[in-house]
Design brief:
heterodimer, A: alpha+beta, Phosphatase 2c, domain 1, 6-stranded antiparallel beta sheet, 18 helices, 42% helix, B: FAD/NAD(P)-binding domain, Gyrase A, domain 2, Alpha-Beta Plaits, 8-stranded mixed beta sheet, 22 helices, 42 strands, PPM-type_phosphatase-like_dom (chain A), metal ion binding (chain A)
């Protein structure tokens, strides 16, 4: 079974989406030029989600990638709801009041977000009322809590993350008379999702991360070369601080079991996540909710299974780590991607490929044989492929698509091998997940001129 | 790394071979790690300074010292044999198109073979043979033509079948081959070591060699070399030899007086591999696959393979730092087509491991031929460079010829095709060179078909009538930068496109040129011949005549208004130039020479005319447009336009007169046509060119006038047995040998150059004779056409080569011109060629291995033409009545 280059392209481009920020929207110039986004499923259906939106009542743009596990319900819910929670957290008191009054009196509500969505990125209509009510409760509390202080972005991000996770948990505990919705909120709560969200406002870039997706900044050095700067920390066993944190939060007696085989309680890879109430609720609560829940939930072995050594919940949190970065003119782009990308490619290569793509320098890294053992046949194949790649670079109109092409098709020389690409993309559904993970990528391109001007203005 | 290893090895031997040199290399060697080097100081003076320690420089030094010139200093900016020479693929191949190139390569091969024995320096010489593959029938024809040349030169060579190729080389895929040429004597060498061996021998003969010495410029006084300035001081010298390879152009331009050496570097790539599992034998033949654009030789058990890609990468156009040659990048993507061709030719190599892709710049010239000889502007400034990637093959022979040139005044062979003076300042533009070498490098592998024209660097010099002629369907070729018409495509005629009209057979313009020839014979044609070189020589007293009488063999003391055909001969009586000289007045002369004589003839005259302010030589080429009116009706056209009688009684043959044509006055009209046909050449001051052309065309209409091109001219002159300088005549041909004794006036009362040699020939006879051959059993439509360089056989024995050929539309046969020698059957010694020897023999011309019967003639078919002309005139009068 062999996919022709056009077939490969149609698979790669099925989910691509690009958005160009209007250079001047009448109010201010944006430091974001636009973004390219794409995702390639390995799971069926895909468990990754992505979101992008412009804040309408405050300044700034929100972009995020969400990696679901144990199903896609939680990732879907977070992708729909998190930006509203963030936007609300950022709103000044007066705006919140105005919105609340409008809702109360049945007037048209000020729009909070302008979404930039691919047609495949859907919102659940059935749950919108439920989600809206939860959100309204949140802003009502914010109105009541009015501190009079200006909103700190970092704090807003943390609050929004925590609040949404809390709402997910509560909605599952309370249940819903509508059996569809009841089952939905339970699936959301019992599945999980990581989130990596960027908030860009002028030169202020905030990354809020929960879990093991990653944000990497692409920096162009003075010599024109590209380097990658991490703007998030992975919350997993490879992160010493995280391991320490998790262990600290539980009694000494559990030290060995809290992190086992590089997983939380020997089960979960990310150490922070939305949902996953199996790692948050007490055993009693879990049993109660499952027993009273619908039959589908009862029949599910996974949901019924209680993690071993489960003594002092919660073991898991959705609280993000937030990093603030002041954008500089040399910061050309930001890559948000789920671990499906970072497992296959080093961030330096990612930054170089995107950098060369975006600057239109399709100059290929010259091949040097160096110390490698390369046969004439291998070299011949590689060169033929590179010729094809020159055209492939021009084929991709989307930086994320271009990255995925590399992530899936790269051979040992770091160049796209069409044969490999064809094989990887034609794997049957049941095998695909063994060779690769879902990949979701959003590449945000910054406007260096605006950033430079902002800097000088300060 | 492999190269470096070779270097180290050779250095060790180098020191052992020459103790005097050891001191210096040792001190330099240690210097790299410890103290400053203490090089041997440069001498203050030397007879010859050679710049460049590559294969060319060392070969020149070697041959000079062998010929007894020992006061020679060789300067190398880096280390010996460290430039292009070090990176050379080391293939010595004699399969060359030009006979002088073939001879150089053959000599090199023989020299290298015994060099190790002579010098004690290992040269890595292995006689492997070479196989040139043909994927197409046309390629096979091309190879067969070379094979014919090689065979008559005594170089073993055979055309073999694909199966035989497979027997000679185990790895070759032969499925797409139609044949091949096998040259068993071709060899491989380590090129750096050959160069070092030559340096060793030269050094033993007294040549001083200084490495790490850069020549900054050459000092020139009164048009002569006086010394060189280096970064280590000055050396006074009489001769300077520029062997700077790809830096030769820059070095030539470094002084106050530029020496134009038109060459340009291109990147050149070849691949080195690790050994095969079963290492390749070191005597495995070298493979040249021109259709795949690659060559493949065995190398340390693996292979070395490079080629000449279609899209070359010229470099150093702006003249870069020399040291960058070391840092050139491998470019695999660029090499991809060549790698594909390699794996197609030898599929089993797929699993072979790559060692390195070498990027080694080579210098190329505008016409694919190397550059040698003395500068036309600076005496004592010699050049040997621009090897078009055949430096190793030519190195020995080229060095020998240049040394002979310096020592004896001229080489032992006709090297005009390689002479620096074939170029002028006009080929020296960097843009021109860059564009041209991008065309030349791929041509290394392209099929060399007859009448090839370069496509780049065109429309540089043009006649004022260019646009007019172009609009009338002119197809152009180029000579010395000047656009000349080949023929005119009649409106509505569809000619094949350029690529398809490349043929060894009857070309698509056959009928078009036939019609032009017919018009020249029956009515009148106009050919724009403005490219011809035109000089004026005048003086206040009789100096012009006196000097010209010495420089030219014919008697120029003719009445004013007469035109004289004469040779400009060298001391041996050979033609340095063949020209027509009109005596404009008692003290001024107008001289017409071939187009490519512009630099050579100027230099020859300048160097020999006395430094006399009352004697002036002026190049007026650009001042005149020349229209050649050929045909029986030319006289009618001209007399109507000038209101002057032009009949032979009033305007005899070989006459020159300034007159008015149309409204324009001061047109020099000469009754010559360069074809043997009746007619006139009009030398028109350029501002009148368009006017006169229009008048001629308008007036000519009723006489059936039409435009014609050089192909028609060539057919006419060849069937009339007219020899042409540069094609048939050269510095090794005397008037006696080409039936032009009547153009030599041995008793004209004044001495002239070459007189003695001609006297001797007159007494003792000549050793070759210019002969005309009419092909007998040759079918113009289906047989291969002759070109030039075809071997001539007399009674089955090789006697010489053709120099030009054309289809004669009058004789309806092919005519070849060439020289017949008489080699003693036993000793091979050259004997006198008599008319009897020519007339009593059965001749055959070998075209790509196929022999065609030919009739030899020493005189043209004058009677035949006379008869035909009378008949034609009758026909023409009939035509006019219609």
């Amino acid at each position: 079974f062999y996919l022709t280059p056009p077939q490969v392209n149609s698979i790669l481009k099925a989910n691509e989406y690009s958005f160009k920020v209007p250079e001047f929207d009448g109010k201010n110039v944006s430091s974001v030029l636009g973004f390219d986004s794409n995702q390639l499923p390995a799971n069926a259906p895909i468990e990754d989600r992505r979101s992008a939106a412009t804040c309408l009542q405050t300044r700034g743009m929100l972009l995020g990638v969400f990696d679901g596990h144990a199903g896609c319900a939680c990732a879907q819910a977070v992708s729909e709801r998190l930006f509203y929670y963030i936007a609300v957290s950022l709103l000044p008191h007066e705006t919140l009041l105005e919105i609340e009054n409008a809702v109360e009196s049945g007037r048209a509500v000020l729009p909070i977000l302008q979404w930039h969505k691919h047609p495949n990125d859907y919102f659940s209509k059935e749950a919108s009322k439920l989600y809206f009510n939860s959100l309204r409760t949140y802003w009502q509390e914010l109105i009541d809590l009015n501190s009079g202080e200006t909103t700190d972005v970092k704090e807003a991000l943390v609050n929004a993350f925590k609040r949404l996770d809390n709402d997910i948990s509560l909605e599952a505990q309370v249940g819903d008379p509508n059996s569809f919705l009841n089952y939905l909120v339970l699936r959301v709560a019992f599945s999980g999702a990581t989130a990596c969200v960027a908030h860009v406002d002028g030169v202020d870039l905030h990354i809020a991360n929960t879990g093991d997706s990653r944000a990497v900044l692409g920096v162009q050095e003075e010599d024109g070369s590209w380097s990658a700067v991490n703007l998030s920390y992975d919350h997993n066993a490879q992160n010493e601080h995280e391991v320490k944190r998790v262990r600290m939060e539980h009694p000494k007696s559990e030290e060995k079991n809290v992190v086992k085989q590089d997983r939380l309680l020997g089960l979960l890879m990310p150490f922070r996540a939305f949902g996953d109430v199996k790692f948050k609720w007490s055993i009693d609560l879990q049993k109660r909710v499952i027993e009273s829940g619908p039959d589908q939930l009862n029949d599910n072995e996974y949901t019924k299974f209680i993690p071993p050594n489960y003594h002092t919940p919660p073991y898991l949190t959705a609280e993000p780590e937030v990093i603030h970065h002041k954008l500089r003119p040399q910061d050309k782009f930001l890559i948000l991607a789920t671990d499906g990308l970072w497992e296959t490619m080093h961030r330096q290569d990612v930054a170089r490929i995107v950098g060369e793509y975006l600057t239109g320098v399709h100059h290929q890294q010259p091949i040097a044989v160096g110390g490698y053992k390369v046969t004439l046949g291998q070299m011949h194949g590689l060169l033929a492929e590179r010729r094809a790649r020159i055209s492939s670079v021009f084929e991709d109109q989307n930086a994320a698509t271009h990255l995925i092409r590399h992530a899936v098709g790269n051979n040992e020389f770091g160049t796209v091998d069409h044969d490999r690409l064809s094989k990887m993309l034609s794997l049957p559904e049941e095998l695909a997940r063994m060779y690769r993970d879902d990949i979701t990528i959003t590449v945000v391109q910054f406007n260096s001129h605006v950033i430079g001007a902002c800097q000088n203005g300060e | 790394p492999a190269g470096m290893f070779l270097r180290l090895l050779s250095d060790v031997r180098w020191q052992a071979a020459h103790p005097k040199w050891r001191k210096m290399t040792c001190s330099q060697r240690s210097s790299s790690s410890t103290a400053e080097p203490t090089p041997v100081p440069l001498p203050a003076e030397a007879q010859v300074v050679i710049c460049g320690g590559g294969i060319m420089g060392t070969s020149v030094a070697y041959h000079l010292s062998k010929m007894g010139w020992k006061d020679v200093v060789l300067l190398e900016q880096g280390r010996l044999a460290a430039g292009t020479t070090r990176f050379s693929a080391g293939i010595v191949s004699t399969a060359r198109h030009l006979s002088v190139e073939l001879k150089m390569a053959d000599y090199s091969n023989k020299l290298y073979q015994q060099l190790e024995q002579e010098t004690g320096v290992s040269t890595g010489y292995v006689k492997t043979g070479s196989i040139s593959l043909a994927q197409t029938q046309d390629r096979l024809i091309s190879l067969k033509r070379i094979a014919s040349s090689l065979n008559v030169m005594g170089i073993p060579c055979e055309i073999i079948t694909p199966k035989q190729v497979a027997q000679l080389h185990p790895l070759i895929n032969i499925h797409d081959l139609v044949g091949a040429m096998y040259v068993p004597e071709d060899a491989l060498v380590s090129s750096a070591n050959v160069s070092l061996a030559l340096a060793t021998a030269a050094s033993q003969n007294g040549v001083q060699i200084h490495e790490r010495t850069s020549v900054s410029h050459v000092s020139i006084q009164k048009g002569r070399v006086t010394g060189v300035e280096t970064d280590r001081g000055q050396i006074k010298c009489q001769y300077f030899v520029n062997c700077a390879g790809q830096w030769a152009y820059e070095l030539g331009h470094s002084g106050k007086e530029p020496v134009h050496i038109p060459l340009h570097a291109c990147e050149h790539f070849y691949l080195l591999t690790h050994p095969l599992k079963e290492p390749l034998a070191s005597n495995l033949p070298t493979i040249v696959d021109p259709d795949g654009r690659i060559y493949i030789r065995n190398w340390q058990g693996g292979i070395l393979s490079g080629g000449f890609e279609k899209n070359p990468k010229p470099l150093f156009t702006e003249g870069r730092n020399q040291l960058e040659i070391q840092n050139l990048q491998e470019d695999w993507d660029h090499f991809e087509p060549l790698l594909s061709a390699l794996l197609r030719r030898m599929p089993d190599l797929e699993a072979l491991q790559i060692k390195q892709l070498v990027n080694c710049p080579e210098s190329f010239t505008p016409d694919m031929r190397c550059i040698m000889g003395e500068s036309p502007t600076v005496r004592g400034y010699f050049v040997l460079a621009g090897m078009n990637s055949a430096g190793i093959s030519y190195g020995g022979g080229a060095g020998k010829y240049l040394a002979e040139w310096m020592v004896n005044g001229y080489p032992s062979e006709n090297v005009w095709p390689l002479d620096l003076k074939r170029f002028g300042a006009l080929q020296s533009s960097r843009t021109f060179l860059r564009h041209r070498v991008m065309e030349v490098m791929p041509l290394m592998c392209d099929l060399k078909v007859p009448r090839w024209d370069f496509q780049t660097g065109r429309q540089l010099r043009t006649s004022p009538l260019y646009d007019r002629l172009d609009a009338q369907g002119a197809r152009w070729m180029e000579k010395h930068g000047f656009e000349r018409v080949k023929y005119f495509v009649p409106p509505g005629t569809d000619l094949l496109d350029l690529e398809q009209s490349k043929t060894f057979y009857k070309p698509d313009w056959f009928d078009i040129v036939g019609a032009e020839v017919k018009c020249c014979k029956e009515a009148v044609c106009v050919i724009d011949m403005s490219s011809f070189t035109k000089f004026e020589i005048s003086s206040t007293e009789d100096q012009a005549l006196e000097n010209l009488q010495y420089l030219f063999s014919n008697d120029l003391d003719v009445p004013v208004g007469h035109v004289v055909h004469t040779g400009m001969l060298n001391e041996k009586g050979g033609y340095e130039n063949d020209c027509s000289i009109a005596r404009l007045s008692k003290r001024s002369f107008f001289m017409i020479s071939p187009t490519d004589q512009q630099v050579h003839c100027w230099t020859w005259l300048k160097n020999r005319l006395p430094d006399d302010s009352n004697l002036t030589l002026e190049d007026v080429t650009w001042k005149y447009t020349a229209l050649n009116l050929i045909g029986p009706r030319a006289v009618d056209v001209l007399s109507e336009l000038s209101y002057a009688p032009m009949t032979p009684e009033h305007f005899p043959s070989l006459f020159c007169k300034e007159m008015s044509v149309g409204y324009a006055n001061g047109i020099r009209v000469m009754s010559i046509t360069h074809t043997g046909e009746p007619g006139f050449v009009l030398y028109i001051p350029i501002e009148y060119a368009l006017h006169v052309y229009n008048e001629v065309m308008n007036m000519g209409q009723k006489y059936g006038i039409r435009n014609a091109g050089y192909y028609a001219l060539r057919s006419l002159r060849i069937e009339k047995f007219f020899a042409f300088w540069g094609q048939d005549l050269d510095a090794f041909t005397t008037p006696m040998e080409c039936g032009r004794e009547f153009q030599v006036k041995l008793e004209k009362g004044t001495e002239f150059i070459g007189q003695e040699a001609l006297l001797e020939q007159k007494q003792n006879g000549v050793y070759k004779r210019f002969t005309m051959f009419i092909l007998e059993d040759h079918d113009t439509d289906t047989d291969l056409w002759p070109w030039w360089g075809e071997p001539i056989f007399r009674n089955g024995r090789y006697v010489g080569k053709t120099t030009s050929s054309a289809y004669s539309y009058t004789l309806e046969r092919h005519v070849c011109l060439g020289f017949v020698h008489h080699f003693d059957e036993n000793t091979g010694e050259e004997l006198v060629v008599t008319a009897d020897f020519i007339n009593n023999g059965d001749y055959a011309i070998d075209i790509a291995g196929q022999r065609f019967q030919a009739k030899a003639k020493l005189y043209p078919f004058s009677s035949l033409f006379a008869q035909r002309r009378r008949k034609d005139e009758e026909e023409l009068s009939g035509y006019q009545r219609e």
